[in-house]
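queue> pop job 88
queue> type: inverse folding (structure -> sequence)
queue> payload:
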């Protein structure tokens, strides 16, 4: 079994390690030309991805499943340029609404050619940014400049304020005065982020679009431009943090892609989850491109006043002049959306190198300069009031690589803190521990099903005696029904070889119930009943051929060597085999407590059935494997029940207890603990250590200790009875049946350990331990190791069968002489 489990665990651990490592799954989907800033993303039901190019005012569609490594991209629409395009959302199947230059546009992709039309609604907006669909006609739109979320009905042409509070409020923490940014709808909640506040919120919304209750904070300290939200959490595009952060609904946050100083997902702007079967676990990411560190050069310029800083660009000569007053003025040749992100970094650089520079509250204003691209002046005061200025002009050498990324989302494995080299062995060990724990759990829970295998082999409970009749001849087997002590119906198989008189006529069985002529004195007939207790698997009919072979050997030996001269017609030998509850045709479910009741009811039934006025009854108990523990336990319990007090033996009873002449333990198991160790010999397997959790406590050792304890407790009482007889004192009234001899009352039965030398289930050291226990307890015990015998073959081998038969004859003949 391990030869299959270990390779499977190795293969599965490496597979899960690959799936669990987001960095190894990150790859480019499409790269746009330099200078392109991707702002938002949406995924169509077909799997194609729509992206908005912010600074180009373009809407693009990328086909991810065209069957080639080079994904095809097409321009869906070019909006008015110069202009911008920000949010996009789907309001119906393949019908989208986007924001271009602070206006709403409807994009219909359900036809062959896209149809783009403006939506006739004017919102007094500052900067419309994120957008989400509330219902078929209503949208939620974030206004980053005004710090609020609009509710817009595109069919009615109406709008109103949906949320305006501290969670959406603007702040200058990142530079410009901005507030709420990306928004998404999922499962009745509106999720939104506030980039300057580095906070992530949600609020419950009704189908009508009205909010229910107050917004709740999911996480703080995480930067989010836009994001994708799923049932397991939200994936936040970290913009200048250069990471994708997963935030669970309980507020736990961890990075799943990128690092602070890496270029993997640099300036991530938005994210969306795939919608098809092929990309359901894929997260698509847009970025604004990678930018080199600003090349900051300093010029010192002294002038009393100047009116329009945007028209001023100092020359080298002017920059060489000295000035004493300090003031920082930042001029940048980059896009407005990236300016407010880069300026704080540049200001820190300035203040570190030039501590005397006066910090300013910045403000972004757009200026046009003839003959070159636009640039931006950041200032918050009238420079005319400053007599001397120190001007910082930041020049960016841009190598923008605006990309669309995708990576497979981690499937509940947090491996970012674990070295990749350790992931496969850790998963492998975890799988083994999980398999061990799972199997241990079911071994404990289903131990009755695993111990009492009445269902093996298949159809075992539907077998019949007639199926084995030919193999059992001349032994005749019949099925009888008895009741256990709790009323459970049990099946018993009775087998015997018919007795014949010397004249050839059949002599009536001792149990036939025929009446003898009055006045006729019958000699005592010896009857030996062998009570067989099967192992834990299979049904009783399966064992009848083996029992018949033993009975034939006994009969042949008895014909050649009579047990008693007082019994000229020989001794009748009978084998009765008990089917425990839950086995063969017996009702009920097999449990230890129930089987113990069955064994006592079985011995009581033997006493009632085979005891007769002129019969000397001897009983041999024979148990195989688990049946050896059942037989030894039944012996100890039966002796304690019936022989603990002599007065109880003859108190108005209809029969005396049977005389247990011998106990045969074939391939015995000492205890459940030893059985587990024999089944799982490897010390590194946990199954062998489960014995404390077992509620089945079969043990031959414990039963022998009980027999020895009974012997010691009753030795004094039996000695007192013997002394009473010798002194001539009257005995207790005798019953109408035979009385047990005083010697048999005092002595426990002899025990035969019949072990299989090549037992594949029970190791030989178990018999060694039982033999040692028997000698320690001073019990009459003999052992026979059958060479070459497997677990069920000890009586099949000639020497094993002879040892068993000789033990039966020795026990019954010695008891007969004592009686």
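queue> result:
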């Amino acid at each position: 079994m391990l030869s299959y489990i270990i390779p499977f665990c190795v293969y599965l651990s490496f597979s899960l390690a690959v799936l669990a490592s987001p960095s190894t799954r990150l790859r480019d989907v499409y790269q746009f030309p330099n200078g392109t800033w991707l702002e938002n993303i949406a995924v169509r039901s077909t799997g194609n991805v729509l992206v908005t190019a912010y600074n180009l005012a373009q809407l693009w569609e990328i086909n991810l499943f065209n069957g080639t490594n080079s994904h095809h991209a097409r321009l869906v629409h070019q909006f008015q340029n110069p202009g911008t395009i920000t949010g996009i959302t789907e309001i119906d199947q393949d019908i989208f609404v986007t924001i271009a230059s602070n206006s709403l546009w409807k994009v219909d992709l359900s036809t062959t050619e896209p149809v783009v039309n403006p939506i006739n609604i004017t919102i007094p907006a500052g900067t419309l940014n994120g957008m989400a669909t509330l219902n078929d006609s209503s949208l939620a739109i974030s206004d980053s400049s005004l710090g609020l979320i609009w509710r817009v009905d595109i069919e009615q042409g109406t709008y109103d304020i949906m949320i305006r509070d501290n969670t959406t409020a603007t702040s200058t923490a990142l530079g410009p005065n901005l507030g709420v940014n990306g928004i998404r709808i999922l499962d009745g909640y509106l999720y939104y982020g506030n980039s300057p506040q580095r906070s992530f919120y949600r609020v419950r919304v009704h189908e009508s679009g009205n909010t229910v209750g107050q917004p709740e904070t999911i996480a703080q300290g995480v930067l989010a431009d836009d994001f994708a939200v799923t049932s397991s959490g939200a994936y936040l595009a970290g913009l200048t943090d250069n990471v994708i952060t997963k935030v669970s609904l309980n507020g736990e946050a961890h990075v799943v892609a990128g690092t602070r100083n890496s270029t993997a997902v640099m300036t991530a702007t938005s994210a969306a989850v795939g919608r098809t079967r092929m990309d359901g676990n894929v997260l698509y990411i847009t970025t604004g491109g990678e930018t080199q560190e600003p090349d900051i050069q300093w010029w010192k310029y002294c002038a009393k006043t100047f009116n329009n800083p945007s028209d001023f660009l100092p020359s080298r000569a002017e920059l060489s002049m000295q000035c004493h007053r300090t003031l920082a003025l930042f001029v940048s040749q980059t896009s407005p959306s990236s300016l407010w992100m880069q300026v704080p970094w540049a200001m820190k650089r300035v203040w570190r190198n030039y501590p005397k520079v006066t910090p300013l509250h910045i403000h972004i204003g757009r200026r046009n300069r003839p003959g070159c691209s636009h640039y931006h002046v950041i200032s918050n005061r009238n420079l005319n009031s400053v007599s001397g200025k120190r001007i910082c002009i930041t020049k960016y050498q841009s190598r923008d690589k605006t990309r669309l990324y995708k990576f497979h989302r981690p499937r509940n494995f947090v491996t970012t803190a674990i070295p990749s080299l350790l992931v496969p062995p850790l998963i492998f060990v975890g799988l083994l521990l999980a398999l061990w724990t799972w199997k241990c759990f079911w071994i404990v829970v289903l131990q009755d099903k695993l111990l009492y295998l009445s269902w093996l082999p298949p159809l075992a409970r539907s077998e019949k005696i007639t199926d084995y009749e030919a193999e059992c001849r001349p032994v005749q087997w019949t099925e009888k029904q008895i009741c256990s002590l709790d009323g459970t119906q049990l099946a018993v198989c009775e087998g015997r070889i018919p007795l014949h008189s010397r004249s050839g006529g059949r002599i009536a069985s001792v149990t036939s119930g025929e009446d003898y002529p009055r006045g006729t004195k019958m000699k005592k007939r010896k009857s030996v009943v062998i009570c067989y207790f099967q192992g834990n698997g299979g049904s009783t009919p399966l064992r009848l051929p083996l029992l018949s072979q033993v009975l034939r050997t006994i009969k042949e030996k008895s014909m050649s060597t009579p047990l008693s001269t007082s019994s000229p017609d020989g001794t009748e030998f009978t084998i009765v085999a008990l089917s425990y509850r839950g086995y063969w045709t017996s009702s009920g479910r097999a449990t230890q407590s129930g089987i113990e009741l069955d064994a006592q009811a079985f011995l009581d039934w033997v006493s009632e059935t085979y005891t007769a006025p002129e019969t000397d009854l001897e009983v041999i108990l024979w148990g195989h494997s688990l049946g050896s523990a059942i037989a030894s336990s039944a012996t100890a319990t039966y002796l304690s029940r019936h022989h603990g007090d002599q007065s109880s033996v003859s108190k108005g009873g209809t029969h005396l207890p049977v005389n247990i002449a011998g106990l045969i333990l074939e391939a015995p198991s000492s205890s459940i603990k030893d059985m587990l160790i024999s089944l799982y010999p490897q010390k590194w397997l946990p199954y062998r250590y489960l014995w404390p959790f077992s509620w089945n406590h079969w043990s031959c050792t414990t039963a022998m200790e009980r027999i020895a304890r009974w012997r010691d407790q009753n030795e004094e009482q039996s000695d007192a009875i013997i002394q009473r007889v010798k002194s001539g004192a009257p005995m207790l009234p005798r019953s109408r049946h035979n009385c047990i001899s005083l010697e048999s009352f005092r002595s426990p039965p002899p025990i035969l350990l019949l072990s299989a030398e090549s037992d594949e289930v029970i190791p030989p050291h178990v018999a060694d331990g039982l033999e040692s226990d028997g000698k320690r307890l001073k019990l009459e015990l003999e052992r026979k190791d059958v060479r070459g015998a497997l677990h069920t073959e000890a009586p099949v081998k000639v020497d094993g069968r002879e040892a068993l038969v000789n033990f039966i004859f020795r026990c019954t003949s010695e008891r007969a002489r004592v009686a």
